[in-house]
Amino acid sequence: HPQGIWRWTTEAGYAAAQPQWTTVLDLDALSQAEGKKWVWKGASCLQPDERLCHVALSEGGEDAISYREFDLQTGQFVQGGFALSKSKQGASWLDKDTLLVSRDWGQGTMTASSYPFVVKMVKRGQPLEQAQEIFRGQPTDQLGTYAGVITDGQGNRLVAIQRRTTFFGGETHVWTPQGTKKLDIPARTSPAGMVAGQVLFQTSDPWGASPAGAHASAPLAEVQANAIKPVLVFAPTPRQSVDEVVTSKNNLILIYNDNVRGRAAIYTPGKSGWTSKPVAL
């Protein structure tokens, strides 16, 4: 399988010496059937069920991708489902019947560096030309503008639009059905996840009591009202750096380097702030 397979196993199966894998999608077989060399570019599944996913495929590995809706329960592409033709683009699930899409919508919708800067709402079964615009960057932006949907295990949701005015940072806007609101946060600070209604931010610039390279949080209501009072979650020492953050239903798992050694800790929000405990590695 030189082009790869998409497969899954259970948690117990993964821990076994010989995991029992179930193949979801065989890229080599798909390429042979359709006469194209499909390259895997990722998949995003609708939370919390994680049954419907949009799969990103690139023909020959080029930057432009196409999206197709895939049903993990049936193991098939959805007949008549969401299908976005080839473009430099990004798509996020808003709900089962709605995507937030940035792509080449036609003349004047791509930056000078060939990134999309117009975000539209695409409804199931709706022709792309009927999609509703919800946000627009500028053609002079150095990178693109994309919408992301952040959820947590309690059903909270934040729609954040990242407008990359430069290669190093930009603006963050919050979208609700009432419109968009620009957040008063540093250009190199951005949302990184949400746990129990606490929105997490990663910082590359100092932000209040949070130094560069730290992670901070704020209640969802504060973020949506653009009245953020960031609470420090983790601040690295001069010999530490954050490698990755992963959210679960009730916790934040922070993976970091400490003097070139891998470390991990579990952070849990509570009434008195965040508590942490190290993970034995």
Protein model, in words:
This protein is mostly beta strands. The protein contains three helices and 23 strands. The strands form six sheets. Strands 3, 4, 5, 6 and 7 form a five-stranded antiparallel sheet that branches. Strands 8-9-10-11 form a four-stranded antiparallel sheet, with no helix packed on it. The longest helix has 8 residues, at 27-34. The radius of gyration is 20 Å and the shape is globular. The mean pLDDT is 96.
Short description:
The chain is mainly beta. It is built from 3 helices and 23 strands.
Major sheet, described briefly? 5 strands, antiparallel
Low-confidence runs of at least 5 consecutive residues: none
The gyration radius over C-alpha positions equals 20 Å
Task: Tell me, rounded to a whole number, the average pLDDT.
Answer: 96
The chain-level structural class is mainly beta
Number of strands: 23
Key terms:
281 residues, mainly beta, 4-stranded antiparallel β-sheet, 3 helices, 6% helix
Topology:
Blueprint: E1 5-8, H1 11-15, E2 22-26, H2 27-34, E3 38-45, E4 52-59, E5 65-71, E6 76-77, E7 83-87, E8 90-95, E9 98-102, E10 118-123, E11 132-136, E12 145-151, E13 157-163, E14 171-176, E15 179-182, E16 189-195, E17 198-203, E18 215-219, H3 220-224, E19 231-234, E20 240-247, E21 252-258, E22 261-270, E23 273-278
Antiparallel strand pairs: 1-2, 3-4, 4-5, 5-6, 5-7, 8-9, 9-10, 10-11, 12-13, 13-14, 14-15, 16-17, 17-18, 18-19, 20-21, 21-22, 22-23
